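EI: anyone free to look at a 206-residue chain?
SC: sure, send it
EI:
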Amino acid sequence: MQSDEQSNLPSQGQSKWATRSSMIRDLKLEEISEERWRNVTRVYKPLLLAWMKNKNVPASAKDEILQECWAAVWESIGKFERDAEKGTFRGWLRRICRNKIADYFRSLPEDQGVPQEVLNAAVNREQKDPDEIEAEEKALREIETRALSVVRGSIKNENTWKMFWMTAVEKVPTEEVAQQFNVSKAGVRMAKQRVLKRLKELGFEM
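SC: here you go
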């Protein structure tokens, strides 16, 4: 069940969250921590599942495809470069997922599989249909909620989180928040930046 704060997240049309280059750089590090990797996979899982659902992947195959997707990300993230021509991290992740889904259907016995021409169209099609767009937007909202949940769990001081939420999400003036918590305006800004730093480590910004 979502908390009141999580349910107040901006809608996808309003969201200013985006995958950051800093997260991509972190994923390229040979010494990335197990916790950091686990958090990234946890946060992005809804998006991969949404793409699988759109392609009618059976529930029994989803875990295996998830593992194959993350293995491919781990193996090839060093080659990924985000730019206008090559696309975004999310687009790159979508292509990996799409290819793993196609591999799964190709592996099925001929009488259970998908016709080759359908597979080719699914793998090569860049334009999204309305159902896929809707599912992706829903998954992105869940990603935002998961990212906030991960970060909130790592913030030990409840007031730090509240000061962040009030200033960054509810847009309460810094001076008003400072008065409410009996701290300086600099203290409020420091609390906000502490949480934003954790979000950046997961690849998001507000």
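EI: The mean pLDDT is 76.
SC: 👍
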